[in-house]
Amino acid sequence: MNSTVIEKVNSYIDAHREDIVRDLAAVSSIESVSLEGDEIKPFGPGCRKVLDHMLAKGEAEGFQTKNMEYYVGSIKYDLGKEDTIGILAHLDVVPAGNDWTVTEPYNPLYKDGYLFGRGVGDNKSAAIGSLYIMKALREAGAELNHNLDLLLGTSEETGMADMKYYTENYECPKFTFVPDGGFPGVGGEFGRVRYTLTSNNALSDDFICVDSGSAFNIVPNKAVALLKKDTGIDYSALDKEKFTITEKDDCIEIVAHGVTTHAAGPERGVNAIYVLTDGLVNLNGLNPDDKKILEFMNNVNADYYGSFLGIDCTDEVSGTTVSSGTVLRYDNGHVSLLNDCRRAVTDNNDRLIANITRKAEEWDFSVSVQETSNGYALDVNGPVIQAIKKVYVDETGDTESQISIGKGGTYAGALPRAFATGINLRSDKRPDLPQGHGSAHQPDEFIVVDDYMNGIKLLTKMILTVDEIL
To answer: In angstroms, rounded to a whole number, what is the distance separating the alpha carbons of residues 296 and 469?
Structure first.
């Protein structure tokens, strides 16, 4: 690797620190939640706006741009080479949620070395950081063996229909980095089963509504039940630290409080749906039929591993399956619970679905499966991944962190010859935030700007290494 090029790249990144932060704040100010079924195809006005913004920026910087029907965008550093290395980021974000304390979700704030805002980490930091990598390499006069193509997706958080469209209609790069998995990288991904459990019987007319959650991949921090007055239910047993009970003109409002987190790591949070059902099922005066419906959902969420449904599994290749009911809805008395399961790689979806269906039928619930994937495991001992890991170890001195199987779903599982790694070289530095705040999919999402700059430099060295050995 050319040390002079590395020095020039690092100097360029340091000199443009404020520009990088400004550009990341600008793109993060766009509310780009991917919307399935919106009249503005394919994924709604926010995703169109954010892709237009990035492609205009790429064109202004002198790169080739391409809009692939608003599914995917391309900003290409075309050197006339036969093959291309891709860098794939997603511009869509999860819903902002509530309880932000530092700033409004789409009003990014740069303060005390941190940048706060929805999407600043997941995953707009990868889009802006990768654009500056291409700018830095061009400025440094790097003699590359491959073209570089910054690919920008718009539906990563909602099922990756963008990647299905892209792989079916366009040629994929020879190798693709996906800076959405953390350093040193991810050697594969858990399988996925997303499914809904719906009660065949309706709750009694004691209930007006139950509701929680905004997206399948977010463990919610708030769950609400509205009940009629004069039901005979005794609410005095509800823990006042976990519940807020409000008597309104026409109902009793019960709000359960949890701690939000990404559904890939549910053990880091507290599922408000479970808090709600666990409180309700133990109340004196609750209708027995209502108790049975709520008890089933409570059992489903009683641990993070799907044990009640018989889908728990641990293997040596990947680790332990996690499963959470994340979205609770109410329709004419019938309740539905959307579940996000990330299963161990050596398990199989047919077993999970059969066990889920069997248990649901025992409790008079029906099952609808929305999405499945089989997961994958890469050869982490192959030359390319070993070279990437060596760059990480040489730069950080960290020999403990391993390239492991990830529970978070990234684009790396949707493309051939793709590898998920990081863009933020994380340190222990962290602002003073409430529990359940600061990470991806949480309120007060933030990045440490110093870590971000170091991560951009590290990813650049990984790209240069792969460019040499492919």
So the answer is: 54
